[in-house]
Design goal:
154 residues; mainly alpha; two-stranded antiparallel sheet; 2 strands; elongated
Length: 154
């Protein structure tokens, strides 16, 4: 699977100015997971065309904005704790304190809401320009079947 976004682009789009977040911390597996979990179920066959750099550059940029937020959403738990020989730990230092569970939950909800709003903009763009995206089938779009943004399956 080709990645639609690079780790550098994720850092620039989703972690703008966040201390210590480097492209090396964003694994390709997290990006691939976000693509498969959040983007492909919405775009269906159109997703495959986005993997080709020359196909639909305007749409690809819209998708990248949403995808960057979905990658951030998947990264939040990894950034909140570390795993190593000492088990699962939280980072504490002289200038930092671990976020409490409530703060982490709020950050995840906020990030998910932003990602969902951006993904809905992608869908709106596609549906307003249907003739430009013949691979897109609205019947395959999971957002038309369930609400993955609100946490309630309708």
């Amino acid at each position: 699977m080709e990645l639609i976004i690079t780790p550098q682009e994720v850092v620039e789009m989703a972690f703008e100015g966040e201390y210590g977040i480097t492209p090396e911390r964003i694994g390709n597996n997290v990006i691939a997971s976000a693509q498969q979990k959040f983007i492909k179920p919405v775009l269906g066959d159109l997703f495959d065309k986005l993997e080709d750099d020359s196909s639909y550059p305007e749409l690809k940029e819209l998708v990248k904005a949403a995808l960057a937020q979905y990658v951030k959403l998947l990264m939040i738990p990894k950034l909140a704790v570390s795993m190593g020989n000492g088990g699962i730990t939280q980072i504490k230092g002289t200038h930092f304190a671990s976020a409490n569970e409530e703060s982490i939950k709020a950050l995840k909800e906020n990030t998910k809401a932003e990602a969902c709003a951006l993904m809905r903009e992608v869908v709106e763009h596609i549906e307003q320009n249907r003739e430009d995206y013949p691979e897109y089938n609205p019947a395959d779009n999971i957002l038309h079947k369930v609400s993955i943004c609100s946490g309630i399956i309708l």
